[in-house]
Task: structure prediction
Amino acid sequence: MSLPNALTREEIIRWLHEKNEEKLHQLWQWADEIRTSVVGDEVHLRGLIEISNHCSRRCSYCGINAGNTSLVRYRMEKQEIMDCVDMAQKFGYGTVVIQGGEDYGIKKEWMDDIIRDIKSRTDLAVTLSLGERPIDDLEMWRAAGANRYLLRFETSDRTLYEKIHPSMKSTIFDRVEMLRTLRNIGYEIGGGIMVGIPGQTYVSVYNDLCTFQEMDLDMIGVGPYLPHPHTPLGTEGEEIRKQTPDQIANTELMTCKVVALTRILCPEANIPSTTALGTIDRQLGRVHGLQRGANVLMPNITPLHYRKLYEIYPEKAGNDSTPAETDQLLKELIAGLGRRRGKGPGGRLHTPHRSEEDSRGLPGIHKRMRGRTLIT
Ligand code: SAH
Result:
């Protein structure tokens, strides 16, 4: 297949509108070829531990937001977290992802101690996803050995973002800016979006893709927005959707298009096939993600009784499977695709950029695949 090495705004928006199956097949193939040639056939597994569903924020899309009073709240004990870490190691995962609400009951020293313990006991990479914590906390945790930080910016449309993510402070805290700070502190950084937020348009998703490329993100998480009935957006969303001309759909297909375009525009990034994608289509979601650009899976190893309380959206895929069952399922899924489980921490790959390759005279096809496809 002949691969263009640039995409215009019109082309990207046309792909997002594309309905023709043959054409879409080309998009999937393009993303899959780039994924194979740049990051290879390994699927990296990150053991996800949802350590707390306490949250001080009022994000209008998220089921664990502070305003949801119908939820029983929990915070895991250190020993419970360490048991999950041991399990991740036993299953041969290279990374643990420690995620939670923005919970200031999690003290920075407590987290510091846990990170140090994980790093001294195991060779796992540690990824944190604990919201917009103060810089002091983030610096302390990085010094303790945490390697990566996930903080999706959800949408690059400022007006929409301010609507769905009310600020806690007098100034707007900018997640894109915070990702830059995290990179300066020394973390690998992960951003991402939800696809199909009520009020989100085609142009705003195009801008999200531009932001992924501009920021050269190490990890990019893209999942469909799933309405939660006990949230403001869960109740008002349908109306907003109807009133938004050019509303992006929150479907499996649209999410796959964004995943594929993300791989094409950011060939080196680690891109998960998300749980939300596996929730919207339980049979094929995660498989499609892996076939259309993704190279990471995040098996949930949170104890089952906590997992159902970490209800960011309803009926998360895998909510009833034990870690051993999930591990088996994912093993089969990966083998079924002719891929292999990643070894080691699976950090971000850095390949030389196009100009360096040009000067070394690599063959044309390689040049195009390894270099990024630029947005023009
Ligand atoms: N407190 C952390 C972790 C939040 S949960 C933080 O704010 O970064 C991780 C991700 O789940 C969020 O970034 C968001 O993209 C996604 N999420 C939350 N609610 C969702 C919903 N209703 N549908 C789909 N994804 C959702």
Remarks:
- The radius of gyration is 20 Å.
- Strands lie at 6-7, 42-52, 95-100, 125-129, 148-150, 188-195, 219-224, 296-297, 340-341, 374-375.
